[in-house]
Predict the 3D structure of the following.
Amino acid sequence: MTDALDRIAAALERLAPPPPTSADPQAHAAYVWRGDTLTAARAFAALPLAQLHGVAAQKAALVANLDRLAHGHAAHDVLLWGARGTGKSALVKAAVAHLQAAGASLALIEIATHDLGSLPQLFAKIADVPRAFALFIDDLGFDAAADGRALRSMLEGGAEARPANARLLVTANRRHLIPRDSAEQDPTASGQINPRDAIDDQLALADRFGLSLGFHVMDQDMYLAVVEGYTTAHALPFDPADAVGWATRRGSRSGRVAWHYIVDLAGRHGKTLG
């Protein structure tokens, strides 16, 4: 009977899929963290830095900070906050790719918000790798201050802080990551006796980022400059009235809206976009 059970167990082990193997952390330009496995990104395609308009100051600050990280110097965790579609995520990828093209030993690791709890495992996996890592968390936001406390301790002050060769790059639509809701006006609703306590708890996470870069809604002139930059790069005709009409129908002006217009324009002219 025991032999039969052993044979059945061995057969089941052979049928079971092998555990996923993590990618070599020194072999690829970009990765995706799957909660327990580091996977090479299938296609890491970043815009050239020159095609990102209206964010010159943010561009210079982020590239300088990542360059320090890549060379083993002191560098900040970065919060990129502001209006949707203004180029926060595009700038992160473009800055990393720009430095890689210049020979920097730097890789991007994208982390989904639902995998934040597994960051200590990722830290352990990359801590001894002779390479710098930009840990990219896109579109982060918390519904309550308590939700962000684990990440707060990893940024600063916790026993399991991120390693010296890695820094977090977080994008968010809210500057303070946590909504500044009625708890500020009615502190007793959240159990706070002092109204300042509620505000301090909300700001504590954002304050952990040494570098905070704001992105703001574009005016029409900047929107058209972005469109013109894209049309020049992709050999497409530049028609300001047509571009403004597209933005008007979409109800907003942003880098994302400009790119969607370029996709539509290229399609109308029978072209593909790399």
Summary: The chain has two domains: 30-215, 220-268. The radius of gyration is 23 Å. Residues 182-190, 196-200 have pLDDT under 50 and may be disordered.
